[in-house]
Amino acid sequence: MLPPLTVPSLQRKLQTSGAQGLLDESSGHHEMMKQIVCVAAVMLWVVTVVAAGWFFVKGWTAKGSDGRTEILLAPAERDQILAEMRQLLKAVDGVIRGLAETKPDLKQMEETARAGRMHMAEDVQPAIMVKLPLPFKQMGMSIHKDMDALADAIAQNEAPQQILKRLSSMTARCTACHDM
User: Fold this and answer.
1) Is 2 within the bounds of a domain?
2) Residues 6 or more apart from 133 whose CB is under 8 A from it?
């Protein structure tokens, strides 16, 4: 029975048989393959990061028939985003209706404004957030933060005119986003 060949014993046999050139060529080839695999892995990582960044900024969009940006969402995702927008619109409507009263119910107005607060945005699934373009995400988050600030302003009995200015600033962003 022959003894098992280990790498050092194989190297000795190759050296004594005059096959040193083959051994050197083989290990050089192995090193080159390692370098190629490493470069390919780094390039793949870079492409992945760039693609992820591109989709984070651009989202999944297409040019709509009316020239605006269409966000490509599954029906259930679209329903969730539209429900969130309707909730924000109801909050704005509730605050405006409260301001129209002779004696506004500040507690009710505050609760209505808090319905659109930042907490509401936390429920959006990450898969949906990836599909939304960056300007949409930025405007949406700013509206939710402003709803928190609006609720705080109402709780602190801010003047109705100032509350209307806050609402005007928010609805201007809504219309700007819907015009994109």
Assistant:
1) no
2) 57, 58, 59, 61, 69, 71
Query: Model pTM greater than 0.85?
Result: no
Report the mean per-residue pLDDT for the chain.
84
- Does residue 1 lie within any of the structural domains? no
Report the pLDDT value the prediction gives residue 65, as an integer from 0 to 100.
Answer: 95
Residue 127 CA to its chain's centroid (Å): 8
Residues 80 and 154 in one domain: yes
CB 26 within 8 A of CB 36: no
User: What are the distances in angstroms from CA 6 to CA 9, 12, 65, 97?
Assistant: 5, 10, 70, 86
Contact 116, 123 (CB under 8 A): no
Identify the H or E element spanning 70: strand 69-71
